[in-house]
Every structure is written in C-alpha cells, then in structure tokens.
Amino acid sequence: MALTRESVIKKLNGELRKMFLPGDLADPKSGTHVLDYFVALDRVAWVQSMQDLRGRLQTLGWMQEPEVTHVPQPTAAVDFMANITMLNLNPMRGKPKVVNVIETVRNFLDQKFESLRSPLVVVPDTGLGQPVGTGTWTVSVGMTRALACRLVCSLAEQHLADEELQLLKAEVSACFQFKCVMEVPVPPEELLAKSIRAKFVVSESTRPDILQLYSGLQASFATQGLVYQDAIAAFVADFNAKSSVDTSRLSEGEVKMLLLLPSQEALFLEALSGHWDQFKKEDSGITMRMLLSNVNRTKPKDARVPLLWQTIFAPSARKNTYFILRQIAVFVKAVQQASSTLRKGQSLNLRARFRDQSPDIGYDIVCCWAHWEQDFRTALGGKYDETFNKFLGGAFDKEFTEKVKTQDGGLVLDDWRFLSILQGTQTTVRSLEVKQAEADQAAERAKYAAREAAVLKEQQLFQEYCGKVRAHEAKRQADERAFRLEDAAGFDKACAQYMEAWVLAVGPIAPEFVTAQSRKLLNEFAVRQGVQPDGVVSLLLADLTKLGSAFSKHLTNVTKFVADHVQADPVNAAALVFPPNTGCWGSTFSEVEVDKALGD
Q1: 21-35, 128-142, 526-540, range with greatest mean pLDDT
Q2: Rounded to 10 degrees, what is the CA torsion of 478, 483, 486, 492?
Q3: Exposure pattern of 85-106 as b/e (b: 16+ CB <10 Å)?
Q4: With the CA atoms of 252, 254, 260 and 264 taken in that order, what torsion angle do they form, in degrees rounded to the nearest 10?
Q5: pLDDT band at residue 186, thresholds of 50, 70 and 90?
Q6: Is 60 exceeded by the pLDDT of residue 76?
Q7: Could you tell me which of 21, 23, 124 has the C-alpha nearest to residue 78?
Q8: Alpha carbon of 422 to those of 7, 141, 396, 413, 435: distances in Å?
C-alpha cells in the first residue's frame, strides 16, 4: 500500500486519541491535559528531541530562517522568528482547553500554521538584551497555538519515520519555527490585563472562559502579594475603564462569576474545567447562562413555603458543586446513549440538545440531596457512592421531582421510596406502592410504545402516499409537456405545408421572362384559390437601390417590368417602388461583379 499524506495524518490522529481521549467523560480526572503532559516530560530530553527533529527536517530539505538570539529592547512592537524550544509552559490566562488544542493540532496537520499572518504575542522571562535560550518567552496571546505546535513536533519526532515526515515537512516545520511579536514592555501588574484585552479583540480567537480568567487572575494577584477577594473589584473597574470597545470589556455575567468563584468548592472548579476541556462551551452540558441562573440562586421568600423547604432551597457551595456534577452526568449519559445508536459513518452533532432541559428543577433536586446527604449516607452505608452516581445521572428524578413539587413540610427520611428499595425492605406498604407505581409506569410505557408504533405506521403510509402523488404529478407534467410539444410540432408542420402549397416561389428569372412568368404564377394562384384571374390583386415590389454605372440599365429594366405588369391588369395591379438609399452617383464595384452578385 502506497504511503500517502492522508494515511500519515490518520496515524497521528490515532496517537492523539490514545494520549488525550478521556476514559470517562463524566470524570474530570480521567483525561490528561496537554499542558500537564508536557510538564511531566523530562525537559532536557524533550529539548534534545526537538534538536533531533530540526536536524531531520534540514536533511529533508527544510531551509531554516534566522532566529532571534537576544531579547530586543523595543520602543515599538518587534517581530522575529523563534523555535518551539524557546517558549515556556507558563499559561498567562490559565490552561488552554484540551478540545481547542486538539482541534488546532488537526488544523495544523491539514493546513500548515501561517504564523506570518497570525504570529504569537510573547513577553520575555529574562531582562532586555539578555541571550535567548530554552523557555525564554512566555506566550501572552496564542497559548493554544503554541501547545498545538509543541504537540505536532513531539508527535512527528516520536512516531514518524523520515519518509512519513517528508510528506508533512511543511506542516511540521511551520510548527517548529514560527513568527513571534514582542510588544513594548509594561509593568508586571498590567501584563495580564493587556493579555486579556488583546485576546478579547482577536476576532478569530476563542474568548477565554471564566475559569481561565479566574485562574490567571489568581496567579497574577498572588505574584503581586494581593488577596483575590480584595483586589478583584478594583481590577474589573480599572480593566473596563481602559477598554475602548464593548468586546474588550468584561461582561456583567463574567464579572458576576469572577466574584462568585472564590467561594466555590475545589470540586466545582475541577469538574467544570474538566468538562469544558472535553467539550466546547457552546456544545457542552453547562453554559454560561446556566451558571448565572443557578449558581448561588436564591428564591424569593414565600410564607406559603414550609420552613423545611426554605432551608432545603437555601444556596450553598456544596449544592452548587452537586448541580455541576448532575448537569455533566445527565449530559454525558444522553451523549453516550445517542452515540451507541449511531450507524457507521454518522457523526454526533448538536450536542447542546442533550443538556438538561430543566436546569432549575435540577438545582432543586440537588438541593434535596444535599439537605438529606448525611441521612442518606448513614442509611445506605457502602452503597452510598454508587447510589449517588446513579442520582447524578437522573435515576431517581421522578421521586425527587414529586417531592420538590409537593413541598411536604412533614417530609422525613422514611418517606423516600428509593431508600426502601435499596435497603431491601420489600414488605413495607411503601415498597408495595413503589412496585405498583413501577407496574403502572410499565403499562404506560407499553401504551406509549403502541401509540408510537401506530403513529410511525401512519407516518410511513403517508410518506409512501406522498411519494406516489409526487411520482404521478411528475408523470402528468411530463405527459402534458410531451403532448404540447407534439401538438406544436404538428401545427408548425401543417403551417409549413400549407404555406408551401399556397405561396408560389420562383428563383431568379431572366429579364425578358419576368412579365410572362409573373402572369403565369398569378393565373395558377387564382386557380388554386378558386377565383377568376381578374379577381386577384397583385403587388410588384421594385427595388431601385442599385446605384453605380449599371443604374441606368437597372432603372430601364425596372420601369419596363412595372409598366408591363400594370398594363396587363390596371385595375388590380400595383407597384411599390423603393427609392435609392444614397444621394450620390458612382460605384466601387464593376459591372462584372454586379452581374455575378445578381447571378448568385
């Protein structure tokens, strides 16, 4: 089998899946982050492998551009060429999302990285004028592309033979050496704000999510010796005041979340970050709008709501965490169920439709679990963790939804039906009620399945009927068109035959026979029409447009023809004479040419 570029790319994509595809989409710890993968590598060994890659590329014909050797001292932005070993792994705005890095890697394999059009924006870790070495530059804008370049180079060095590398030489070399831009240095406390603002205004770039902003701000404040909760409000006010356009400002929702995140549990941040690493925000189970509507949600006070349920619905960090875990579990379960039904060659798009369609009810449900958590843990013992995971996936939603809607102020632990079933107390009245409810539910499902089958049958019959109607209509239109074309062709043929019989046509006639021939044709026409010859009106068209030396001869002939024609039947004969179309004598054609043209 011949080696092709597509087969080499397919091989690298397979290695990507082995390295970074999570084992469990619902578990944020099941996948490896690209940044963590490179941090865990031996730095010296990795740098040496990149030098080996440089040598292999040069052997294959790659022409290296001159690279920066010392940190510039710019008064304006300075651009230069750098290689992948010169960049460090310090994410200025938090870790890039794995899903974006993998997508960028695949883009760079399909079409090489055009750094001349989209250079990386970097800042130095050393002083101005110092020599450039390994890890000298920190990426300010373009960390996703930088990690993608690092990953492409590492995969190429580890898994491609020289003949395979030759097919991707342009793509790999573009990731090994690229253009960077160093802007005018700013004070350290302004560095992050400048990076965020620059990222916001890049139209083709993905806007950093709220967790990336939070992580970057935490690191920046810690470097300055500031406490996040004390510094965030002033930072937001100063940042938005210095931003000239709306897109470069922090939105109201982003500001709200930046103020809420410090009070959330570590598992909240870890689970949400891991989920957004696996799915793009717009395709994930949790959106920014969902977070703003539910995290730390407070319900208006209502005297009709029992005190127990007012306590249950009170927001807390634990309830927020369970809400995030539930939304992820419900989404992942729906995606996995849909994936299992896909046929070969199909793709799973529009993942957003697999989100929890009632997140507000979902938050109420996790509030119930969080309130009774210790009682559930005591009652279930070793079964608690397994039961909790089932709860997150929606296994007990029916019972919890009932409790949330009824809001019984006298609710106690023994009222939870799922506990009776899991504990094996099958002889209680409540467990029998559960069995009866399950039987009723099974009967309802059977009725629903029967109705669904009937509807599908009707749908199939209607689709077949519509198909036959369309086929009949198409045949009718085709037959009608064929008939019209045939009828038009017959009419044209009949007209042609009639005109051929009705109109007598004769070719050029010698001048001495014109009068006699015209009288003969008139008599034949009268016979065909069944009228007397003297009842036929004739019109002679005389063309006097011929000028030149032969005009006098032509005029004499025409005059004779007209006179003879009118004299033969002065009552019904007439002549229409076309005068000359030029006002001067003379001709550029000789008599011979004129006679030849008349003969032709």
Answers
A1: 128-142
A2: -120
A3: bbbbbebbbbbbbbbbbbebbb
A4: 160
A5: confident
A6: yes
A7: 124
A8: 52, 53, 12, 13, 13
Q: Is the pLDDT of residue 29 over 80?
A: no
Q: Which helix (H) or strand (E) holds 181?
A: strand 177-182
Torsion of the alpha carbons at 223, 225, 226 and 228, rounded to the nearest 10: 50
Given a cut of 70, whether residue 389 has pLDDT beyond it is yes
pLDDT band at 449 (very low <50, low <70, confident <90, very high): confident
C-alpha span between 67 and 59 (Å, rounded):
19
What burial letters (b/e) apply to 323-357, b meaning 16+ CB within 10 Å?
bbbbbbbbbbbbbeeeeeeeeeeeeeeebeebbbe
Distance CA 565, CA 540 (A): 8
**Phi and psi at residue 279, to the nearest 5°:** -130, 140
DSSP states along 476-523 = HHHHHHHHHHHHHHHHHHHHHHHHHHHS-------GGGHHHHHHHHHH
Residue % of the chain over a pLDDT of 90: 44
d(CA 559, CA 544) in angstroms, rounded, equals: 10
CA distances from 423 to 413, 458, 589 (A): 13, 46, 121
Average of per-residue pLDDT across 384-413: 90
Within 10 angstroms of residue 168's Cβ, the number of other Cβ atoms is 22
Query: For residue 427, what pLDDT is reported?
Result: 47
> What values do phi and psi take at 469, rounded to 5?
-60, -45
Contact 372, 346 (CB under 8 A): no
Place of tokens 């957004």: 276
The pLDDT value given to residue 425:
58
Q: How far apart are CA 220 and CA 235, in angstroms?
A: 11
What DSSP character marks residue 383?
A: G
* Torsion angle defined by CA atoms of residues 266, 272, 273 and 276, in that order, rounded to the nearest 10 degrees: 180
User: Do residues 164 and 3 lie in contact, with contact meaning Cβ atoms separated by under 8 Å?
Assistant: yes
**Which stretch of 170-174, 326-330, 572-576 has the lowest confidence by average pLDDT?**
572-576
Q: Taking phi first (over 0 means left), then psi (-120 to 50 degrees means alpha), and beta for anything else, what does residue 510 get?
A: beta
Kindly give the interhelix angle for 252-260 and 210-224, rounded to the nearest 10 degrees: 60
Using alpha carbons only, give the angle 578, 584, 587 rounded to the nearest 5 degrees: 90
Hey, what are 464's tokens?
A: 């077949």
User: For residue 283, which of 334, 319, 224 has the smallest C-alpha distance?
Assistant: 334
pLDDT value at residue 80: 93
- The single-letter code of the amino acid at 294 is N
Two tokens at 487?
């009828």
**Residue 164, φ and ψ in degrees, nearest 5:** -75, -40
The angle that helices 188-201 and 228-241 make with each other, rounded to 10 degrees, is 50
Within 8 A by CB and 6+ apart from 479, the residues are none
Asked if the model's pLDDT at residue 584 lies above 50, the reply is no
Two tokens, residue 413: 């632990």
Least confident of 14-18, 78-82, 428-432, 507-511: 428-432
pLDDT bin (cut points 50, 70, 90) of residue 433 is low
